[in-house]
Amino acid sequence: MSSPLGSSGAVDVVLALGSNLGSRRATLDEAVAALARAGGLEVVAVSPVVETVAVTVDGPDPSAPRYLNAVALARTTLDPDALLDLAHRVEAELGRVRDRRWGDRTIDIDIVTMDGVLRDDARLVLPHPRAAERDFVLEPWLLLDPDAELPGAGRVDALLAGLRAGAADADMAVAVDGAAGAGAGAAGAGADAATGAEGAER
Ligand SMILES: Nc1ncnc2c1ncn2[C@@H]1O[C@H](COP(=O)(O)OP(=O)(O)OP(=O)(O)O)[C@@H](O)[C@H]1O
Ligand SMILES: Nc1nc2c(c(=O)[nH]1)N=C(CO)CN2
């Protein structure tokens, strides 16, 4: 089967998605579908969905609406700026309002890594500077790819184990659902670990 990207110049990217407002699961699915529809990006696989406690600027907040988080693996011919523009466009389409840092949001799409790209400027930092500390990124990523590595930080399984060893709230990720974006290479790995997030929209 031929790739919609053709054969030239595509690189692997890892995208982290999160939603803690509205119909979270539907929004994640719509975000994956919108990314998959966009020119220059092919969604290869999507992780199971993990329900997580909101991390705010003051730390984990069990009283805030919980997030559904997922990770998507994709291939793209877009350059990093164009990929960030696409992420922002999809966020805007899905009602993302930027008010507070780490505030509640219908959808957040972060670029975790882009193969071979190291970048650090006001607009974009790659790999994502906080991915290594975020169980809400590492857990779904690991479910999708047990051999995943975060460039410059190490294996995702080791990073997650380190976080869990250090965290009093090691069970912040409270439930695992099926993969987001079914039909876009969604992976079912880890769905057996579900503890009831299915239909958990409130
Ligand atoms: N790797 C990256 N992925 C996405 N945005 C990035 C990245 N590096 C830098 N940014 C910049 O961060 C800005 C703020 O992004 P956003 O509002 O999604 O932040 P946030 O999700 O609240 O916090 P965080 O960046 O810690 O995830 C974006 O407009 C973008 O310019
Ligand atoms: N649980 C959880 N907390 C967050 C998340 C997220 O995706 N999941 N995203 C944030 C900003 O990117 C801030 N806090």
Summarize the structure.
By secondary structure, this protein is α+β, with helices and mostly antiparallel strands. Helix content is 24%, strand content 29%. It has a single domain (11-177), classed as 7,8-Dihydro-6-hydroxymethylpterin-pyrophosphokinase HPPK (Alpha-Beta Plaits, 2-Layer Sandwich).
What can you tell me about this protein's structure?
The chain is of the alpha+beta class and 202 residues long. It has a single domain (11-177), classed as 7,8-Dihydro-6-hydroxymethylpterin-pyrophosphokinase HPPK (Alpha-Beta Plaits). 24% of the residues lie in helices and 29% in strands. It contains four helices and twelve strands. Strands 1, 2, 3, 6, 7 and 12 form a six-stranded antiparallel beta sheet that branches. A two-stranded antiparallel ribbon has the order 4-5. A two-stranded antiparallel sheet has the order 8-9. Strand 4 and strand 5 form a beta hairpin. Helix 3 crosses helix 4 (156-166). The protein is globular, with a radius of gyration of 16 Å. It starts with 10 loop residues before the first strand and ends in a 23-residue tail after the last strand. The relative contact order is 0.23. Bound molecules: adenosine-5'-triphosphate (ATP) and 2-amino-6-hydroxymethyl-7,8-dihydro-3H-pteridin-4-one (PH2). Adenosine-5'-triphosphate is lined by residues 84, 98, 101-102, 108, 110-111, 123-126, 128, 130.
